[in-house]
Amino acid sequence: GTTLGASAAEKGRYFGAAIAAHKLSDSTYVGILNREFNSVTPENEMKLDATEPQQGVFTFTNADRIVNHAIANGMAVRGHTLAWHSQQPGWMQNMSGTALRQAMLNHVTRVASYYRGKIHSWDVVNEAFADGSTGARRDSNLQRTGDDWIEAAFRAARAADPGAKLCYNDYNTDNWTHAKTQAVYNLVRDFKARGVPIDCVGLQSHFNPNSPYPSNYRTTLSSFAALGVDVQITELDIEGSGTTQANTYRSVVADCLAVARCTGITVWGIRDTDSWRASGTPLLFDGNGNKKPAYTATLEAL
Ligand code: XIL
Fold first, then answer.
1. Can you say whether residue 289 is alpha, beta or left, with left for phi > 0 and alpha for psi between -120 and 50 degrees?
2. Does any ligand 1 atom lie closer than 6 A to the CB of residue 237?
3. ipTM of model over 0.85
4. Which reaction does it catalyse (predicted)?
5. What are phi and psi of 192, to 5 degrees?
6. Is 239 considered catalytic here?
7. Is the Cβ atom of 43 under 6 angstroms away from ligand 1?
8. Is 189 exposed, middle or buried (0-12, 13-18, 19+ CB in 10 A)?
9. Chain mean pLDDT for the chain
């Protein structure tokens, strides 16, 4: 194929980008989006603070802009995210215990129900494990409601939208030997063993000198897949430039294609200037929307 999306589709996969609703009026941005990508993830518009700014008051205007654009252009939508310790609305940050558990489950149910039938995959729970060598859960108000908050969220999401693939998504889970990777692996294995609904693992894969692309990345992808879940690369960006960056993108794509259940790749933004990494150049297009060596390598690898 001559575009990322078409080439990925020839391999039975998608190639997506995180996008922002307020950029859908930028013709350069939309031109690249519509030409190259066949999946989108709302970068912020489906997060808890965006969709439930006051308790029980749901706002989907900006998320709908993205979903409607995707549907009109034949793109899949990755929903991101139903339950997370970060970007919570103020009212939720101040909650705890049974009230918070109920509020979280109500949020999952209401948002997943609103988008029922329109979401390819939901990041049901994002970033629930701690960094470092312990493999422990991350402390958060949600975690303090009880260890079973993750499975409760997945059960609520399945009931609300039985057709969506339900993913657990995290960062620093790329290196197979890291405690956090093993902890997520054990969570998924436990869920599969006990029949807790889970269909996919999302590896954010934000690569930079502090968390570089690991040589055992393919082992991580295939190990998760062997548990009977899909693996999705959900927030890919790679700090760097030129040939080095291009070769890392090439390796990531090759690793995904080598694993049958690695079903898609999403980059976390379109142009370098769209990146959440303020000073970096981690994406496939430069600030003018021109294809970088990383783009060419990615397309060649697909
Ligand atoms: C980031 C967005 O890109 C920023 O615009 C926002 O200010 C903060 O969140 N992991 C995730 C994403 O799961 O939701 C984060 O997105 C990046 C890290």
1. left
2. no
3. yes
4. Endohydrolysis of (1->4)-beta-D-xylosidic linkages in xylans
5. -65, -40
6. no
7. yes
8. middle
9. 98
